[in-house]
Amino acid sequence: MNTKFTIPKSAEPLHVLLIGNNPIEMSGVLTKLKQIRTKKIVTEIAFDVKSILDRLIRFKPNFILIDDNIGKAELSQTIQALSQSNKTKDVPITVLKNSNYQESFGASGILDYLLKNNLSAEVLHSALRNSLHVRRAQQYLIQAYQKRKKSLLAFS
């Protein structure tokens, strides 16, 4: 299993795919993303699975933010589509939630959750940075395992 996800170097822009169905909330998140001054961030916004697939034709994100207001079924469908796409299967996904009491949508594909009422540029920056570090560690472990798989199986 080779991963094609690449961690952007500090000088490279971060490509964020923002997914949601409420333009007012999406513009608020976009404003907070633009307040992050330590990193250049390029964003694309999608409102449903079809527009996500349209965006992926010309845009390769290294981070995905999804608003849970799109609904449980649409969220599950979106995560499934992103997990199956070669361009996004290894990209960290963070879900923006309205409440801590709402049902979680399973760990398959979702790396982090953020509460919208606590959202700020600093919180988004930390989430971006931490998710990229976690994804980098996961990639390293996958590569190390693949490299040493025969040695590990010899111990069994």
Fold and architecture overview:
This is Response regulatory domain-containing protein. The protein has 156 residues and is of the alpha/beta class. It has a single domain (14-154), classed as Rossmann fold, CATH 3.40.50. The protein has helices at residues 23-34, 49-56, 72-84, 121-154; strands at residues 14-19, 41-46, 63-67, 93-97, 110-115. It has a 5-stranded parallel sheet. The model has no long low-confidence stretch (mean pLDDT 82).
How many domains make up the coordinates?
1
Any idea of the CATH topology?
A: Rossmann fold
Mean pLDDT over the full residue set: 82
Gyration radius, rounded: 16 Å
Report the CATH C-level class: Alpha Beta
Q: Going across the major beta sheet, what is the strand order?
A: 2-1-3-4-5
Strand residue content: 15-25%
Characterize the main sheet: 5 strands, parallel
Number of strands: 5
The helix fraction, in percent, is: 40-55%
Shape: globular
What is the CATH superfamily?
A: Response regulator
Provide a count of the helices.
4
Structural class by helix and strand composition: alpha/beta
InterPro entries: CheY-like_superfamily (IPR011006)
Organism: Chryseosolibacter indicus
Protein name: Response regulatory domain-containing protein
